[in-house]
Each structure stands twice: as C-alpha cells, then as structure tokens.
Write a structure and sequence with these properties.
This protein is mainly α. 70% of the residues lie in helices and 1% in strands. A hairpin with a 2-residue loop joins strand 1 and strand 2.
C-alpha cells in the first residue's frame, strides 16, 4: 500500500479483518448448491460492492462496540497525575501555592474593578494578568500529566503576554494601551482573508459581506491616524517607543522591560512550538530518537525544574507591578514578603541534598 511493503501491518486497527471476510465467502460457497466456481463467478461482478459493504459494516460495528470506558480512562489519568504530584510533592505544593496566590489577587482585583472606572492601561494590564495566570494554570496541568514539552509550548504564550503586560504597565500610557487594542485589526484581517479563501473547501458558510467592509473601514481609519507602518509591523502599536526608523519587535520590547535574561529559555520553548529537529532533543539518547519516549509522560524531577521555575519567575516579575498597584500602603510590604517567601520556598525544592549528591 505504502512505499515500504516490508513494514505493512495486518490488523493495524481491526484484528482478523481479511480472515473474517474470506471465511464469510467460504461459508457462502459451502452453503450454496452451486459449485465453488459458479459461486465465485456470480460474486465477481459484485465483489467491490460486497467488499465495500463489509468494510462499512465492520467499521460501524467496531465503533458501536468499542471497549473504551471513560471512567476507567479518568481513573488511570488521575492516578498518573497523583503519582507525579506526590513523587515531587514539595515542588508541586510550592508551584501551586504561588499560582493560587495569583488567583486570589486577581479575583479581588476584578471584584474591585466592577465598581470603578479605570483607564485603558489598567484595564488592559489586568486582562493580561488574568491571561498569564490562566497560562500558568494550564502549564500546571501539563506538568501534572508529565508533558514537559506541552508546558514549554504554553510558557512561550505566557511569556509573550507577560512582556506586553510589563511594557504597558511600565510605560503607563493610555494611548499606547489603546494602540495595542486597535492593532488587533491586523490579525483580524489575516483571519478574515484566510477564511474567505478557504471556506468553500472547508464546507463552511461565507462571512457576511458587512464583515470585510467594517474591517476595511477600521483599517483606513487606523492608517489615516497612525500611518501604514502601524499595521504593517507585527508590533507596530509600540513603534513610538523607539527612536528614528527603528521598528518595534519582541526582542526590543524584552530589553525595554529588562526581561531579556529569559530569552534563552524562550528560544528553547520556541523549538517545541515550531516543527524542527531540535524538538526531538528531549526524546533522544545520544544521536537516536527513542520512539516510545514520544508518547511516554515524564516523571523525573529534572524535567520539571525549568517549566516550574521559569513560570513562577515570570509571575513574580509581574507581581512587582500588581502588588504595588493594588495593595493598600500599610499592607504592601507584607503582601510582597508573602509572595517572595512562597517563591523562595518553591525554588528551594529543586536544590535538595539528594539532588546535589546526584549531580
């Protein structure tokens, strides 16, 4: 069937598929008053139809009577998560404590903001704070399942949103925050154009004509206000932060908020997002890819260290701003002290004596 005949696998999904079909034909021959040749001669013109009906029947039968049990799956899944968490109890306790602390802060902030009128900068930074916390929680769930690469993929998103949050917070410029929001038209245009190009093949309905008209009107409005470079550049909303003809990019934004020390890990995480051979590094022994490792959850603590410590480190950087902005004066010191102690407690779990002895 494929290029390599010697690796074709009979019964790849359905056991005894061919045998059952042949046995059915033989049974029909034996039960008929006709000779074998006569039976086969009658079946020949209808063979493709008979085979097609058999394939339809067998596939439907397998689907109807599958042996998958959701309760059993969840029981195994949660048992595996519990094993990973209890094996590295102290590290997970510290990690979850810090994320939960962020959840507590965030929930109290949004409860307060419901009764307040806030400016664009505060509104956008709080929204980004919620998104960063969500990514941290998603990273936690990936780690509980032993998927380190999944955590790294999510960390890239967490980090990019964290950088934007810090840029908006530290610049404290409502016009810049408005530009960040308005710049989303750039991606909206890409999505709409791509959808309109492919909806027929996807068997979807076309977008209303008004969608493109509204979008185009917004683009004209932004081009008139900020110039065409605003939407041409992926980070055009922040071009004004850089002098001369220098166009904004993510690296420059990192440097502006003094977060570029995290770039090596960011680049490492990018390898898990984009298809390239380096994405296999975690699944190699020497120069060989160990295929079973690709579908085997990780359990060794060394694999968990970077996703955990880099996630908490980014949250801690953000909380410098969040705690200053939202703490009352006589509680600011104790709030920062508590989060610092949780942060340090979590970091110390990676430097236990038994780990140092094994280095």
């Amino acid at each position: 069937m494929g290029r390599f005949k010697n690796i074709e696998i009979q019964g790849l999904l359905i056991e005894n598929f061919g045998k059952i079909f042949i046995d059915s034909i033989n049974k029909a021959v034996k039960s008929s008053d006709l000779t074998e040749d006569e039976v086969l001669q009658k079946l020949a013109p209808k063979f493709e139809k008979i085979l097609s009906d058999y394939e339809e029947s067998v596939s439907s039968l397998y689907l109807k009577h599958h042996k998958f049990n959701l309760d059993s799956f969840l029981k195994t899944h949660f048992r595996n998560q519990k094993k990973i968490a209890t094996t590295h109890r102290d590290s997970f306790v510290g990690f979850i404590l810090y994320i939960n602390g962020c959840f507590v802060i965030y929930e109290k902030i949004i409860a307060k903001l419901k009764r307040k009128k806030v400016d664009s900068t505060l509104r956008m930074t709080v929204a980004l704070y919620g998104l960063v916390i969500r990514r941290a929680d998603e990273i936690l769930n990936q780690l509980l399942s032993g998927y380190i690469d999944g955590a790294m993929i999510l960390w890239r998103s967490l980090y990019e949103n964290a950088i934007i949050l810090l840029v908006l917070a530290l610049e404290n410029d409502n016009e810049l925050a408005d530009k960040y929001f308005q710049h989303s038209v750039r991606n909206s245009k890409r999505k709409i154009l791509s959808y309109q190009k492919n909806y027929k093949e996807l068997k979807f309905k076309p977008l209303p004509n008004s969608t493109e008209k509204i979008l185009q009107a917004e683009i004209v409005k932004l081009n008139t206000r900020y110039g065409k470079d605003f939407l041409d550049n992926e980070y055009g909303w922040s071009d004004s932060l850089f002098s001369g003809r220098q166009k904004a990019n993510f690296m420059l934004l990192e440097e502006r908020v003094e977060m570029n020390r995290f770039r090596p890990y960011y680049i490492l995480c990018c390898e898990q997002v984009h298809s390239n051979f380096n994405g296999f590094k975690n699944f190699m022994d020497g120069n060989k890819i160990i295929l079973p490792w690709l579908v085997t959850p990780e359990i060794e603590i060394d694999a968990f260290i970077d996703p955990m410590q880099f996630t908490v480190s980014i949250l801690h950087e953000i909380n410098d701003f969040i705690l200053y902005e939202f703490s009352v004066k006589d509680e600011y010191n104790v709030n920062t002290l508590l989060m610092k102690k949780i942060f340090e407690k979590q970091q110390r779990t990676f430097d236990k004596p038994e780990r140092r002895a094994n280095r």
